[in-house]
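Researcher: Re-running this chain for the archive, since the previous output was lost when a drive failed. Same request as before.
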Amino acid sequence: MKLKDRTAIVTGAGGGLGRCHALLLARQGARVVVNDMNAESAERVAGEIKAGGGEAIGVAASVTDEAGVAAMVEQAMGAWGRIDILINNAGILRDKSFAKMEIADFRAVVDVHLMGAVICSKSVWEIMRKQNHGRIVMTTSSSGLYGNFGQSNYGAAKMALVGLMQTLSLEGEKYGIRVNCLAPTAATQMTDGVLSPDALSQLAPELVSPGLLALVGDAAPTRAILCAGAGHFARAHVTLTQGIYIGGTGEAADRVVARWNEIGDRAGEIVPGYGFAQAEREMASSGASPASIAART
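Model: Regenerated structure tokens:
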């Protein structure tokens, strides 16, 4: 019971991956708020948890509804007095090629995936700061990390969640808040018709959820991107190559083109600890003194 006395909120948990997340957290001892747009689905999963001896409440609310999310958080605090874990799992698909996609479909996907995660994270942020403990998991995707045909809206929202995670992990560090991303591959309602039947049979969502414990336990990392599917787990990283100094004189543009392969050479690439690391390297390469770099940090 590694999560005993912890309280978790799982969004989009009325079925599929969210349900599996909620059940796993409950098996680890967490008290779970099962959130879903559909009240019956939320209550059904909460009932499963309670039938197994766990504690849970079902809450119907859209993650894009600030008032609904605030009420859900208030209900959790009233029941258990703390919120330790937030799994931002809720999502929708509106797949089409960019040429055929309506702006409304782009906006709808960004609203649910990105703004829904922002609203939910903001609603628990101060609680976690005061507790000096919190774990937030964003659900990103290979579609955001690497791209996928017909998913420009989904990919943009999913990569935006990586950026949100990177910054929140820095801002939450001194308050014991650790923020990570999970990039799942799972057969759910959202992937029905996207993946082949053979692939779907190998991609049970239950095979993804075990990765959650590493991201929300006491020893959880922060700023990690965990990729999971079919029982396989891997880490993704946003890296920065060593690069080369080109300068800014008249022929700089031609030199960038001519030395493109050197600029992109991955030998010695790093995972920067924060965004300004890029600027620090650039200024150091240009000959700026360490004092002037520090003054700009």
